[in-house]
Amino acid sequence: MATPHIACERGDIAPLVIMPGDPKRAERIARDHMEGVKLVSDVRGIGAWTGTFDGVPVTAMASGMGVPSLSIYATELYSQFGVERICRVGTCGGISSKVKVKDVIVAVSAHTNSSVATIDVPGVSLSLAASYEMLRGAVDQARRAGRTVHVGPVYTSDFFYSARTDIIPALDRLGTLGVEMEAAGLYACAAAHGKEALAVLTVSDHLKDGSGDLTADERETMFADSLQAAVAALKA
């Protein structure tokens, strides 16, 4: 049952999917952290790698950048391949003074300037939110591991480069923890298909103080922390 963007059969994709943005990061997750890994699809360079985490079947597959790209893969995974849960694992820019570089953010909801929040129900801006069970699993794991973890809303922007920096203070006042580019799209797709989703993000830089000049080793350690929380969310 191939789709335009995923070239494999329904059983080749696990019901649980971990989804970074970067295809190379998806391959690294599979190669370095999973067992019995098999490449099951590689359309447009977006590999889908299926194996196990601690004996639990999981597929690692990238989303690409932005809501449109993620929405293609999440829609096909949920609707055609029997996927029940997707956890985005990635990075974000810090907005709130409460968060610091290297902290983990578990996104309970996602504000957005994308039309994904308004297109399905005219006149209504949908509340795009995470799965509670997944959220609880990620937070519990991160706290047990001694990580600083923040739970709250993030801002999903359609623009990486934007002149509208004036909105950041208002988002901060409303409790927004960080900014990224995919969570709202994932939550919208999950809601549309009656499935579950979560975004676990590591703060890689901060919009207020410009901090975030990290070494490669620091970035890899940061990623390992968020990956553990994401896997716990999938298995919760």
From TrEMBL:
| Keywords noted in UniProt | Glycosyltransferase, Transferase
Domain Nucleoside phosphorylase intervals: 16-233
Protein name according to UniProt: Uridine phosphorylase
Which Pfam families does the entry mention? Answer: PNP_UDP_1 (PF01048)
User: Can you tell which superkingdom this protein's organism belongs to?
Assistant: Bacteria
Q: What is its EC number?
A: 2.4.2.3
Known InterPro entries for this protein?
DeoD-type, Nucleoside_phosphorylase_d, Nucleoside_phosphorylase_sf
Source organism: Tessaracoccus lubricantis
